[in-house]
Structure formats: C-alpha cells, structure tokens
Amino acid sequence: MDTHTPKQPFPVATFSLWGCVALAVLGTAIGLLTFPSQIPLLYSLSLPEQQLVPKLYLLAYPISILAITIIHTQTLRKVKALDSTLKRLFLYATVLVTFLITLSLIRLVVLFL
C-alpha cells in the first residue's frame, strides 16, 4: 500500500505570490502613514500638477496584486485538464507580474523615505 502523500505542486511559487501580497500591504501602509497628501504617480502627463494624485491611490497596488493572485490561483484550480508544464508556466507568469507590481511599489516607497 502506498503511503506517499501528494505534495503541493508549486510551494515556492505560491509562497512568493503571498509574499508579494504581504510586501505590497506593508509598503502601502508605510506610504499611507508617511507620504505627503499628494504624490506624483502619473509621470506620463506633461504638467507636474497633473502628475499629483492623492496618496490613497497607493491602495491600487495591493488590491491589484491580491486580485491577480486570487483570480489566477482559482483559475489554476479549475483547470484540471491542463498539462503540468503549462500550469507551471501560468503560475510563474503570475509570480512575475505580482513581483513587478510589488517592485514598483517598493521603489515608490524608497523614493519618498
């Protein structure tokens, strides 16, 4: 009788996803507590006054990361017929996207501290 318990398929990637969520929440909390009331986020606009937004816009970072993480993990759970390699690629792409969003938030926090 086989007593082998199945492992979680991608524990490092899953841990990385939730680590990005935690870092984004921490970065947003730091930003909301320490940043001035207006911060420059919209650098593509030509006038400096148009680049300023309220610091509540920082909430878009963790909300988007959390939404991407939840949607992608639920999608991976629903798709059972997909090949393991494709699932792994999908999960690593999710990790990459959330990591890049988290990195941009950390960069913003470092600029203002």
For the secondary structure, the number of strands is 2
Low-confidence segments: none
Helix content: 55-70%
* Total domain count: 1
- Class from helix and strand fractions: mainly alpha
| Computed Rg | 18 Å
What does this structure look like?
The protein is mostly helical. It has one domain. The chain is 67% helix and 5% strand. The protein has 4 helices and 2 strands. The chain has a two-stranded antiparallel sheet. Helix 1 runs parallel beside helix 4 and helix 3 packs antiparallel against helix 4. The relative contact order is 0.20.
List keywords for this structure.
single chain, 113 residues, mainly alpha, two-stranded antiparallel ribbon, 5% strand, elongated
Write the SSE topology:
Blueprint: H1 11-34, E1 38-40, H2 48-51, E2 52-54, H3 60-78, H4 84-112
Antiparallel strand pairs: 1-2
Helix pairs in contact: 1-3, 1-4, 3-4
